[in-house]
């Protein structure tokens, strides 16, 4: 019980620690520490954003124009100024608040300096990127707050909790998508259109059954179209080459099977062409293939060194059960969603945007094949953002000026607070990012004066350094 209450720290609780003892023990000069962090942040930010923007430019798949190059260079400079400004402001406000108040307290050791630094730095970044940044840090901050509460035994992990979050959030987004609210052109709806197909959009242009009827008539009039050989010589060669003949026969059987599946029953309320069975299987097969291709590509890229060292490693890398996790998740999600909608249309005799809610909840069960807390939280925050924007458009919610910027600053303050006082509750990837962007300074800040608050801060830092294989060294 005493340990639990030791983690509930009054805001007024302060420590008479100097900047040298806590913030920058590697130098006695505040100015030198601030400038050193700013310069390193600037060069590392330039490296990060230079790579990101150049890859984005190359992914357009065309020769860049002068305007493209100018926008890319301007974006690199602006984003570099934003990220390096955060590091500069954080160090500046740490030392400034210490000199102003004469001590550190639970807020000024990290959270408040990070919040103030973020207020100024986020205004440097382009408005179009602020929402994306706010969603990202809110995602990580949500997980961090949960870990902080769990470490205090206030909450406990819920089995399949991430699946529930993902299912509810995706069901909400799919309802918006099917109801035609995606006309706001949010990037999330482009992803949904790719996964579940364009036929579920509101008032899709090819709702008639003409395509299916024409195909059915064409198959009936040409029953042997897929099995006819082009010439007698081609048939003779097939008999000589038994392997080619078997392959040709298999393709003919496959084509006939596809014909029959396409010509199965389709309900009049269904907006897709061909049969409901074909619609379901086609979506599941497409996404399964894409998921498998992504998984194989990632494995090959991440293990390219091992493959070059010994090609025999290729078998152990690719032939694993987990290689099918992403593929089975994407395939099952698309298939379950499409099948559920077709069943609901048959039961009710009509199509409705409300069908996407139960269909999305059922399809969300596929997330058990590839559970990921980061993805679940991102979808949750994305659903919250789109719901809020739709509420503003309909006059349900008031528009709060600067809410995106405030959310970013508040979430960043939580992350920096956790990085200093209880880094074991921080996502390891974010700790590595802070360690890299600060040149190791985040690990060199002395945690010994902070142990008085009973959070085992020094031990927590040692665990994180060992877990993430980072070192407390200042890189200049």
From TrEMBL:
Native source organism of the sequence: Exocentrus adspersus
Entry GO CC: endomembrane system
Record protein name field: Transmembrane protein 135 N-terminal domain-containing protein
Domain Transmembrane protein 135 N-terminal, first and last residues per copy: 16-149
Membrane association type: Multi-pass membrane protein
Superkingdom field: Eukaryota
Matching InterPro entries: Tmem135, TMEM135_N
UniProt key word Chloroplast: no
The family this protein is said to belong to: Belongs to the TMEM135 family.
TM ranges: 37-60, 72-94, 100-124
UniProt keyword list: Membrane, Transmembrane, Transmembrane helix
Compartments, as annotated in UniProt: Endomembrane system
């Amino acid at each position: 019980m005493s340990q639990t209450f030791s983690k509930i720290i009054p805001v007024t609780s302060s420590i008479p620690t100097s900047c040298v003892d806590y913030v920058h023990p590697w130098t006695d000069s505040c100015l030198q520490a601030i400038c050193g962090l700013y310069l390193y942040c600037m060069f590392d930010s330039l490296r990060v954003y230079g790579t990101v923007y150049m890859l984005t430019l190359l992914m357009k798949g065309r020769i860049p124009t002068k305007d493209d190059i100018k926008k890319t260079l301007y974006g690199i400079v602006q984003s570099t100024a934003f990220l390096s400004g955060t590091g500069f402001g954080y160090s500046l406000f740490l030392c400034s608040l210490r000199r102003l108040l004469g001590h550190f307290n639970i807020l000024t050791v990290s959270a408040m300096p990070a919040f103030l630094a973020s207020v100024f730095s986020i205004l440097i970044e382009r408005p179009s990127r602020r929402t994306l940044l706010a969603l990202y840090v809110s995602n990580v901050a949500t997980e961090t707050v949960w870990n902080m509460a769990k470490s205090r035994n206030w909450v406990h992990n819920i089995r399949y909790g991430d699946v529930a979050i993902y299912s509810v959030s995706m069901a909400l987004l799919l309802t918006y998508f099917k109801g035609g609210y995606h006309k706001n052109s949010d990037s999330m709806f482009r992803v949904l259109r790719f996964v579940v197909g364009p036929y579920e959009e509101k008032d899709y242009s090819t709702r008639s059954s003409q395509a299916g009827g024409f195909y059915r008539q064409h198959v009936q009039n040409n029953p042997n179209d897929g099995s006819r050989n082009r010439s007698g010589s081609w048939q003779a060669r097939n008999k000589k080459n038994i392997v080619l003949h078997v392959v040709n026969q298999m393709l003919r059987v496959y084509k006939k099977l596809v014909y029959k599946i396409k010509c199965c029953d389709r309900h009049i309320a269904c907006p897709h062409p061909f049969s409901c069975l074909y619609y379901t299987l086609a979506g599941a097969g497409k996404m399964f293939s894409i998921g498998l291709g992504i998984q194989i590509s990632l494995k090959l890229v991440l293990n390219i060194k091992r493959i070059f060292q010994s090609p025999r490693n290729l078998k152990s890398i690719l032939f694993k059960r987990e290689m099918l996790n992403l593929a089975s998740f994407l395939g099952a999600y698309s298939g379950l969603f499409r099948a559920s909608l077709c069943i609901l249309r048959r039961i009710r005799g009509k199509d409705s945007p409300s069908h996407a809610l139960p269909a999305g909840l059922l399809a969300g069960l596929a997330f058990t094949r590839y559970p990921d807390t980061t993805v679940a939280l991102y979808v949750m925050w994305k659903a919250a953002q789109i719901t809020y924007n739709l509420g503003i458009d309909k006059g349900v919610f008031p528009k709060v000026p600067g809410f995106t910027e405030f959310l970013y600053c508040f979430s960043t303050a939580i992350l920096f607070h956790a990085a200093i006082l209880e880094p074991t509750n921080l996502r390891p990837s974010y700790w590595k990012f802070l360690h890299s962007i600060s040149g190791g300074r985040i690990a060199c800040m002395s945690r010994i004066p902070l142990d008085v608050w009973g959070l085992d801060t020094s031990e927590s830092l040692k665990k994180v350094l060992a877990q993430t294989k980072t070192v407390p060294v200042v890189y200049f």
